[in-house]
């Protein structure tokens, strides 16, 4: 395939570029480098099957041009991270709404296959044990910027779905549940790299709220091959598919594991949500995916255990990954 990966310099995007090139595909990455890093793609530099185009998905003529070269579009570019969404609500909404519409429209016109990265955030405060794709959305007030990411991603899904229905766009909507791994930065939220970077610097580990909230972290190395299999699976078209891990952990428990695996002298400090994210922040208590749809469609079975995922992030950071770069920048 000749693939476009928007957000290709980002965490998941760069792993997707690696995977596609390693499997003989030709890849164009489009990234404005606002949160993505060129260093995430240095291993592909000079590879004739790979090209990085620096630019924004808000630039419609650029989007048209790069989509025109490709038969498959993986749309991962977005404003992400709770801190980004809360700090820059309008800019984030603009990128997540207008940017996606630009990319979908070009893909539909080009008749390219299309995948859009969505998120478990679309389920909002629904904390059911095993959220399946048809679970209800339980969102807070539309006037709380905290929910703008969930609202925008919900609309992104709908836009892609409508293009699928009306113009036959072969599209897959993937809902990622707390995907983690090497290259993810903690600068914009993202608890695992934050804890790893804090532990490696010997700083207090900042657990927000009581730390009893639970998450189920999935490995980027399980999810990336699944995304590629889904785009090759017509039965997955025009539906949303959950992708994530199996092992649930409390955030307090995560802090303990990170301290243990890094061997850090750090202690845990409990930070009230208001201090972390501002007044009125609502956190999800629990977010556990039901991945049986992905299992049925492509045999999805997450392989990586949480401790191994954390260990791979620590290894990566010890050899110059995001924590090291952020520490140097500080
Ligand atoms: N969190 C935390 N300390 C941090 C960053 C995040 O305790 O420094 C918590 C956050 O409040 C949430 C969980 O970790 O309960 C996961 O946060 P993240 O931003 O990684 O993903 P979310 O599930 O909120 O989208």
TrEMBL record:
Domain of life: Bacteria
Entry keywords, A to Z: Decarboxylase, Isomerase, Lyase, NAD
GO molecular function: NAD+ binding; UDP-glucose 4-epimerase activity; UDP-glucuronate decarboxylase activity
Matching InterPro entries: Epimerase_deHydtase, NAD(P)-bd_dom_sf, UXS-like
A single Gene Ontology CC term: cytoplasm
Gene3D superfamilies (UniProt xref): NAD(P)-binding Rossmann-like Domain
Keyword Nucleotidyltransferase among record annotations: no
E.C. designation(s): 5.1.3.2
Cofactor dependency: NAD(+)
Domain NAD-dependent epimerase/dehydratase residue range list: 3-244
One GO BP: D-xylose metabolic process
EC class (word): isomerase
Protein name per its UniProtKB record: UDP-glucose 4-epimerase
Organism (species): Nocardiopsis composta
